[in-house]
């Protein structure tokens, strides 16, 4: 099948590449000319495991092309996917201006039937906005004869495991009001599910809501565990035991029950805000989700609170090593990363930071451009601990899991670790002479 994907970010590039890998002919379009120039040379602008190889292979085999011109992208396409950003706008409302701009461009350039599939996460009603924009443009062009369909097809991939998630999705959600379009969408996705996992056909509104409901539910589990962890720290329990104790109940399940330094990333924070807003616009008070957001905002400061208790409010002259900057492992994405809040607070209080992350340093340099003189970036985890007053673990990259504790002790000024991802066993840290602080494991000295 011929496919156009508009937006070559984390979602668009994965979508286009995976469709191409199934034998489809795919044109990927982006407004960012630099990005397209690099992609045409086979250079990937983001870090995502396995993506480079898959893009190269599909380009070489002639199934994957890149362009800045929507006209070229949709020329032969039956499906046109929209995968542009929908960041938080004013007052927490999702900013769908990029979607509107794309809808406009499609309607100016289309000259045959097209199935327009929205993959971006958007508030309820966006599909009908897209429909109206296109109808109006076609009317202005006097091309009301051109037919099109709108589909809502939210994406559930996780950065860091995006190819695996796209190739083997738990489910595909398709929101459409047209039976024929539903059948075509099913055909397109059949190779990814191969009669195992469901393709769920539903109305457009339910599909748009499903994505927000999924992210809000996952964020709720995280904030719930973070709140429990704080209680553990006060009453003397261990959140690791509590997690096993509840997760083994099949009604609850184990995934997404980790306490930590708070959730971040390009999706949970903005989607939680957006659904709260959808509620208030429609007279529904989203009390649970509002609390989830509040707990998360506070949680990003939890490690800093521990650190201030230990070192005092004024951190002038103190130097901290940081392991992990990305909002989670296996990505270079720094959007809304807890590391931003933590590092800024330390710098504000006079400290300096030596930071290491396997992939996110280039992104971090942009985020911390205004305070670069207080942060030193290093290309090795060992260099980040030289002569530091404490090590702070913020992202749970695999390579941080089993450090050589003797070596750590030798290089640090004092053997103190603040672990925002509960990577180490408190008893082992104690036996090895570390002062160890973590989340909800009752580890304060
Ligand atoms: P991104 O910021 O990585 O990429 C968006 C791309 O769209 C950019 O390359 C940008 O240049 C391009 N773009 C913007 N305006 C354009 C226009 N008018 N024409 C052509 N291209 C344009 O975003 P992302 O992380 O891929 O997210 C895209 C959407 O998917 C968002 O709605 C997001 O919420 C949703 N989503 C993201 C993830 C994720 O893990 N990142 C997962 C599921 C869903």
Short description:
It contains 17 helices and 14 strands. It is α/β, with parallel strands linked by helices and 445 residues long.
Description:
NAD(+) binds at residues 30, 35, 86, 121, 159, 270, 335. Its EC number is 1.1.1.22. Residues 321-426 form the UDP-glucose/GDP-mannose dehydrogenase C-terminal domain. Pathway: Nucleotide-sugar biosynthesis; UDP-alpha-D-glucuronate biosynthesis; UDP-alpha-D-glucuronate from UDP-alpha-D-glucose: step 1/1. This protein is α/β, with parallel strands linked by helices and 445 residues long. The chain folds into 3 domains: 2-202, Rossmann fold (3-Layer(aba) Sandwich), CATH 3.40.50; 212-297, N-(1-d-carboxylethyl)-l-norvaline Dehydrogenase, domain 2 (Orthogonal Bundle); 300-437, Rossmann fold (3-Layer(aba) Sandwich). Helix content is 43%, strand content 13%. A 6-stranded parallel sheet has the order 3-2-1-4-5-6, sandwiched between helices. It has a 6-stranded parallel sheet with strand order 11-10-9-12-13-14. The longest helix has 32 residues, at 204-235. The mean pLDDT is 97. The structure holds nicotinamide-adenine-dinucleotide. Residues 6-12, 29-32, 35, 83-86, 98, 101-102, 120-121, 155, 157, 159, 266-267 line the site of nicotinamide-adenine-dinucleotide (NAD).
């Amino acid at each position: 099948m011929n496919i156009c994907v508009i937006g070559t970010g984390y979602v668009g590039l994965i979508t286009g590449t995976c469709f191409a890998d199934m034998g489809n002919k795919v044109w990927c379009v982006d407004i960012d000319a630099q990005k397209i120039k690099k992609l045409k040379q086979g250079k990937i602008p983001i870090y995502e495991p396995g993506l480079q190889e898959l893009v190269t292979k599909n380009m070489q085999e002639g199934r994957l092309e890149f362009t800045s011109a929507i006209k070229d992208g949709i020329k032969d396409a039956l499906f046109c996917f929209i995968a542009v950003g929908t960041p938080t706008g004013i007052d927490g409302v999702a900013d769908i201006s990029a979607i509107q701009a794309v809808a406009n461009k499609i309607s100016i350039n289309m000259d045959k039937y097209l199935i327009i599939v929205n993959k971006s996460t958007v508030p309820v009603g966006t599909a009908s906005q897209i429909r109206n924009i296109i109808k109006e443009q076609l009317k202005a062009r006097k091309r009301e004869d051109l037919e099109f369909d709108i589909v809502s097809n939210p994406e559930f991939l996780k950065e860091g495991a995006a190819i695996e998630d796209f190739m083997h999705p738990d489910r595909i959600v398709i929101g459409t009001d047209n039976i024929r379009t539903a059948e075509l969408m099913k055909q397109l996705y059949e190779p990814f599910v191969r009669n195992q996992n469901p393709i769920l056909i539903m109305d457009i509104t339910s599909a748009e809501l499903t994505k927000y409901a999924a992210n809000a539910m996952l964020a709720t589990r995280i904030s719930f565990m973070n709140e429990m962890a704080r209680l553990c720290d006060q009453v003397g329990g261990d959140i690791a035991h509590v997690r096993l104790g509840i997760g083994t109940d099949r009604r609850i399940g184990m995934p997404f029950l980790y306490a930590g330094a708070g959730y971040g990333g390009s999706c949970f924070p903005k989607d939680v805000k957006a659904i709260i807003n959808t509620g208030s616009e429609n007279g529904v008070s989203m009390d649970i989700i509002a609390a989830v957001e509040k707990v998360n905002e506070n949680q990003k400061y939890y490690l800093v609170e521990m650190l201030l208790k230990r070192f005092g409010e004024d951190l002038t002259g103190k130097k901290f090593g940081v392991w992990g900057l990305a909002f989670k492992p296996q990505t270079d994405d720094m959007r809304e990363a807890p590391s931003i809040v933590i590092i800024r607070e330390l710098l504000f209080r006079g400290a300096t930071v030596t930071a290491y992350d396997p992939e996110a340093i280039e992104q971090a340099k942009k985020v911390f451009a205004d305070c670069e003189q207080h942060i030193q970036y290093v290309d090795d985890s060992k260099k980040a601990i030289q002569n530091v007053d404490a090590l702070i673990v913020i992202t749970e990259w695999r390579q941080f899991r089993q450090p050589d504790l003797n070596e750590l002790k030798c290089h640090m000024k004092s053997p103190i670790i603040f672990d925002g991802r509960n990577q180490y066993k408190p008893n082992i840290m104690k036996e090895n002479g570390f002062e160890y602080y973590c989340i909800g494991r009752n580890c304060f000295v």
